[in-house]
Amino acid sequence: MRIHIQNRSASAPFVLTPAQWHAAAARAGETDHEVSFGFDTDAFTAAIAEAEILIASPSTIGSLLPFAGPRLRLMFTTAAGVDALRPFERLPPGVLLVNNRGVHGAKVFEYAAMALLMLNTRIPAYAAAQRRGSWEPQFLPVIRGRRATIIGTGDLGAAAARAARMLGLSTTGLRTRALPHDDFDRIRLIAELDAVLPETDFLVLACPLTPATAGLLDRRRLELLPQGAGVVNVGRGGLIDQDALCDLLDAGRLGGAVLDVTTPEPPPPDHRVWTTPNLLVTPHVSADEDPATYNAATLEVFFANLRAWRDGGMPPNQVDPGRGY
Amino acid sequence: MRIHIQNRSASAPFVLTPAQWHAAAARAGETDHEVSFGFDTDAFTAAIAEAEILIASPSTIGSLLPFAGPRLRLMFTTAAGVDALRPFERLPPGVLLVNNRGVHGAKVFEYAAMALLMLNTRIPAYAAAQRRGSWEPQFLPVIRGRRATIIGTGDLGAAAARAARMLGLSTTGLRTRALPHDDFDRIRLIAELDAVLPETDFLVLACPLTPATAGLLDRRRLELLPQGAGVVNVGRGGLIDQDALCDLLDAGRLGGAVLDVTTPEPPPPDHRVWTTPNLLVTPHVSADEDPATYNAATLEVFFANLRAWRDGGMPPNQVDPGRGY
């Protein structure tokens, strides 16, 4: 196939190099493709006229839309969340969209375990006390036996659930369909969210950002959480009303928050998320390993989807634009 | 028996109350003791003339030494580390010393898992970037497969090893005798420390502070750690040369440190540990649960040791002043 790989720039952190491609292609027995690499709009314009497959990040594709790809049949996104492509009506018609779901579990597993333990230990408060040079012990119960509610039961949510379960929390997963899931102690419908929030010690957001989930955790819902509850966001910043979250942290109603995603990213220098007490921000690193490992895993997912599609099947990671994931 | 319980003050965080005593004594079937409670030196002086057993924290006992207890036969410390009693020559002669080893594992397990993950994720650097309002992602490998070296194979060290193993690290335990230990992948003699340090991604200090371990991690040994290694201290601040540690963090030679113990405690307001980059300080909270849970567990350990002693045996938690633990 004729494949074009468009990188955001030559210095972007996850730039996909010819060396990485050739190593992955050799491992997969897929060395007979014609591959081009682009780093700017000119290279993209030249390549998209011929390419049958485009590989790029959602934000890179989003920045180039709309475009025509007369021979284009499949676009593979190097991230799992494709919200940066919205509105999907801009996508070239008739082109399969495939994401790289499946490479983030190991990292999110560790991040979720860390974030839950940090909230239970009140690390954000200790970090603030440290800046004041102040020794302010709080002797608190272990996390074992507490209750985690995880919104989203895909790769991220399931990894967070395995992390919570490893630490001895009870886990409730919220999903759109009432299907059981081995990684969760129980599954509830997302429509039951309001009933589950009051029974939550730690809320983990791990679902895609879609029109159905944008602003899902609004002020009213955040106020349904018990006094002192903690919030972890590894999904997308737009899932939660950040202002309401900051108000509830300011007031001491919530115990703490660990946000790996914000809206916008990065937040402007005067944004409240930088300074709200008991709120720790990390710069969207909860799901991505180091670039070499990440790119190798991403290309492995790509080739697996390519094989399924070439064999006449549906690529396992095909995105349904109607659902948005 | 005639038992005196000396609290540091009526407002100390772990004050042992008559209600807690009576509940624990009822659970243990030990309701026929004569018990007194003291909060100040006068109460202690009056009680110690008659007491056969003294229950108090090591620092409380240390602050009262030397004293004579004509009928005293056993002292039970409500902490595990008894370094605050040093020099042991001040202890009343012929009195058994018993600590409450065994109640800290669940908490240290969680703290060690958290600290290892925080160091691998570079949380101290993100916290500093947050204070600057700066979004500075680092995409780093997962912790699974990395190497933890744990000094001390007692309750704390074993709990830290179980936490590291749960996260997929390989674990090396250092102890004074070459006996295997199920919670570690391998055991090395503490005399082999210099050979193990260069093969360490994360060093966890979890041993007692004794004349043999004071300053164990001096500058020379800290410099044996690989570039970017992380250090966790849940033992005692005096185990490590804090100045050397801060120098190596300042220079970027070490990747980060999480210190739950320092020397002194608390550090004075102008101490470097408050401000050194990539160093997180927590106020000696890694091993102690909330006071109600902690005191109930402590008294359970006390009664178990009392029973063993009354039956003519050696209390399992008897401290050997020669070893210092």
UniProtKB/TrEMBL annotation, chains A, B:
Superkingdom of origin: Bacteria
D-isomer specific 2-hydroxyacid dehydrogenase NAD-binding domain sequence ranges: 114-286
Keywords tagged on the record: NAD, Oxidoreductase
InterPro entries for this protein: D-isomer_DH_NAD-bd, NAD(P)-bd_dom_sf
Alphabetized SUPFAM superfamilies for the sequence: Formate/glycerate dehydrogenase catalytic domain-like, NAD(P)-binding Rossmann-fold domains
A molecular function (GO) term: NAD binding
Protein name as it appears in the record: D-2-hydroxyacid dehydrogenase
Organism classification: Bacteria, Pseudomonadati, Pseudomonadota, Alphaproteobacteria, Acetobacterales
